[in-house]
Specification:
With about 80 residues, this protein is mainly β. The protein has no helices and five strands. It has a five-stranded antiparallel sheet, with no helix packed on it. The chain starts with about 30 loop residues before the first strand and ends in a 10-residue tail after the last strand.
Length: about 80
């Protein structure tokens, strides 16, 4: 299916034929995804969640999550 509407990300190229890339500019498999001030990047098997280039959280391949702020369980979004 196709996405529609206004999205705060910049994507170019054809993701139908792309297989990998170091950024999300054109790939079906990317190691870095950027949207506005947020970036999610995989480095060495660890996902890093950044805001304006500053690490805010990371998740390793075992599912361990480390955050710099508070964690709220059973909250509302």
């Amino acid at each position: 299916s196709e996405a529609s509407g206004t999205w705060a990300i910049s994507i170019s190229g054809n993701a139908t034929t792309a297989t990998s890339a170091t950024s999300a500019t054109s790939a079906t498999s990317a190691s870095k995804i950027s949207a506005a001030t947020w970036t999610v990047e995989e480095i060495g098997g660890v996902l890093y969640f950044k805001v304006s280039g500053v690490n805010k959280a990371k998740m390793d391949a075992s599912g361990n999550l480390t955050v710099v702020g508070n964690v709220t369980a059973y909250g509302t979004v």
